[in-house]
Known about the structure:
The complex is a heterodimer.
Chain A: E1 2-6, H1 12-36, H2 41-50, H3 56-81, H4 89-107, H5 115-141, H6 145-165, H7 200-217, H8 219-229, H9 231-237, H10 241-268, H11 279-289, H12 294-318, H13 324-344, E2 345-349
Antiparallel strand pairs in A: 1-2
Helix pairs in contact in A: 1-2, 1-13, 2-12, 3-7, 3-8, 3-10, 3-11, 3-12, 4-5, 4-6, 4-10, 4-11, 5-6, 5-10, 7-8, 7-10, 7-12, 8-9, 11-12, 11-13, 12-13
Chain B: E1 20-28, E2 33-42, E3 47-51, H1 58-65, E4 73-78, E5 81-83, H2 88-94, E6 96-99, H3 111-118, H4 125-138, H5 154-166, E7 172-176, H6 184-199, E8 203-208, H7 211-217, E9 220-225, E10 228-233, H8 240-248, E11 266-275, E12 285-293, E13 297-301, H9 308-316, E14 327-329, E15 332-333, H10 339-344, E16 347-350, H11 365-373, E17 380-381, E18 384-385, H12 387-400, H13 417-429, E19 435-439, H14 447-462, E20 466-470, H15 474-480, E21 483-488, E22 491-492, E23 496-497, H16 503-509
Parallel strand pairs in B: 3-8, 3-9, 6-7, 7-8, 13-20, 13-21, 16-19, 19-20
Antiparallel strand pairs in B: 1-2, 1-4, 4-5, 9-10, 11-12, 11-14, 14-15, 17-18, 21-22, 21-23
Amino acid sequence: xxxxxxxxxPSRLMSWASPLLAVxxxxxxxxxxxxxxxxxxxxxxxxxxxxxVKDLYALSELLLKATPLxxxxxxxxxxxxxxxxxxxxxxxFMLGAVAATGVALYFGDSESALVLPAMVLAGAAGGAAWAAxxxxxxxxxxxxEILVSLMLVYVAxxxxxxxxxxxxxxxxxxxxxxxxxxAEAATLPMVIEGTxxxxxxxxxLAALVAGYAFMNRSHAGFRMRVAGEAVDAARYAGxxxxxxxxxxxxxxxxxxxxxxxxxxxxPMGQLTDKVASGYGFAAIIVAFxxxxxxxxxxxxxxxxxxxxxxxxxxxxxxxxxxxISMVFQGMLLFFLxxxxxxxxxxxxxxxxxx
Amino acid sequence: MPILPPLTPPQxxxxxxxxxxxxxxxxxYPTVVANDDIGLTVRAGEIRAILGExxxxxxxxxxxxxxxxxxxxxxxxxxxEEVQVESPAHARSLGIGMVFQHxxxxxxxxxxxxxxxxxxxxxxxxxxxxxxxxVSARYGLPVDPRRHIHALSVGERQRVEIVRCLLQxxxxxxxxxxxxxxxxxxxxxxxxxxxxxxxxxxxILYISHKLDEIRELCHTATVLRGGRVTGECIPAQxxxxxxxxxxxxxxxxxxxxxAPQAGxxxxxxxxxxxxxxxxxxxxxxxxxxxxxxxxxxVGIAGVSGNGQQELLRVISGEEPLAERFPVQICxxxxxxxxxxxxxxxGMAFVPEERLGRGAVPTMSLxxxxxxTAAHNQGLVTAGFLRFERARAFARRCIDDFNVKCxxxxxxxxxxxxxxxxxxxxxxxxxxxxxxxxxxxxxWGVDVGAAAFIRQQIIDLRNRGCAVLVxxxxxxxxxEICDRIAVIAKGRLSPVRxxxxxxxxDIGVWMSGLWPGAGDTADAPLAMETPHx
Lengths: 354, 532
């Protein structure tokens, strides 16, 4: 008879092996799905997982896709470490995009070098402002930040729709729900010429480094980790729970807002009602697959980007619906949660009646 | 405390088998051998002490007998028959009852409802209430079956637990450290009850580390150390020192305590402190006055649940007040300050819960040093952590306070309770506080470590620090304190010099009956001491 036995202490090895195990199981599950759909599993694997990394351009697309994911995820991880459950990065992402778009539209055709920095600040501020709502409601009225931040995603989506169908609609845009294209000065420069990989990727890498320094090296990050591990100890030490909620939500919101800014000022070049496309939610998976750790998040965001692009490739070459990438995301999180059990437990063979 | 009549050990009858026999019981956990080859025999009507320090394996052994955990090896015989106890329900059906150290009662239910939950089937509440009244009258354990648990004192709750066991007519009753929540008077009542039970043929396994109690109550004692039986004895024929030798393997250390310096400045003043508890089952603090001077140790005694938790939170700043003046720390009106700000005024604080409050279980000792010493010891510069300094400070705590551990990188939860307590006390004392507030400094700590911690507190006081100790162990308070007060029902008694009072007086005060106690002094007790 197999039984789970509690480990004396959590296994370090397992806490890193668990995401790898989850990836392996996801691959196996994916092959089974391909086979069940009547596709050649080997061909499916090649299209889904190898096409996205086959050349420099494909790689640049992968990094482009990973950029908003790592930004959102590193911001969320800071809050998650302190048990501040911001589920609404998707909405903060959209508000960051809206704020940056506002700046871009305001400056119009200006060629000032200050437009982009202003958009960066506006993006971060917009996301932070949206996250400030659950922070305020949580600290003032003890409203659950999970529910509030999640519900605000839908408010944000409707707000974006109203803008692009209404006041911000491009007058020359054939009635499509989108703003004008941004001017040159309001568009992020490219990191690699000939690709779409924009400067937001560098911002995301910098955010990962900053997130690492904050979480692992700073006293403020230490206080947040203590709050996440043991609430009473944080209270005993005198770390303010209110401040922790604010810092966790505002940093998460600012990072998501930056990611939103990067999308409108990068590959899109305008605001549309499809701006967020699930990055804010996928980032929750990225944060946990990455063990709420900066380096882990780097790897996990690349993996998640691979799933997105692999899904598009599968749609294109295998005639599979695009939701196949959601299936892979779901399997990844499912297997991860399952594998995580073995961080705290081990399997043991036990004879019946012993 | 008056001694009970001399013990008459039960006469072992040759015909009847022993009630409980354990042979070669072992229990191995992944990292520790909790029990190793333990043998134990309990006869009918025998009160046997299980004596040992924390971590000696007492609780594991009791859990095995009560069916909570299963042994890795060994055999158990119940009244001559070999048994394997599958679960606590199985144990109860055999006739084994257990009263846990931490009560398992639902606060929002009444006494009779709680008792009914533990019984098989669905007993009629009226008939059950009648039986509760009968049993409680017979054993001198007055309990009103219709009252809600949350309205009961801790001693009354313990009575409910005992009555609940007795209703099932146990033939073996296991009591796990039952006196830690009782006043000396209540302890005497409990002992009378246990004696009566034993006289009727019920066997009792009595777990404790309090040597005086065991000498007074128990026929026989089995001593455990490091998971093994290190000796058996007849407590009445031993001295506390000789039993301590069996228990810790060496002489019981004593603290050196000289007279306090007089005339130190006031470091902590409670000036008419009142505070309503947020917790509906908490205790409201009512008009507390207290001065703690530099160079003295003031103790606050009391039965747990009389406002100690609330008082500590208000002093530490974990529960800030609306007003400034009721708590004054080193001359500053600090009622509204955060714990961090109070620490910067020179206060250090040792909470009663070690894991999860005094230390973060999953974090290393170096990280736990950062918890309270970050600013005082310069472990943070410009908002960034100085890991090498944190490790060095943790190393000092470990070396100076003889903390047995794997070094500054060891996780807090990997330490035994006593060693973690030494670390936390060390962390607070090495910050050279001007005021130390200490809750239950030696709760659950073994005898050797407890004496060490007490000595460190006394040495700190000799260096001119003001110390406030809140403890439920009267012996401890009388050993280290210069002055003693009592907290009861959220009120504070007058403060007495420890030499001018006695454990018996303080015991009476612990039920709220001190001179001038006003509405709580309803019992006719002669009190000659004038109102202070």
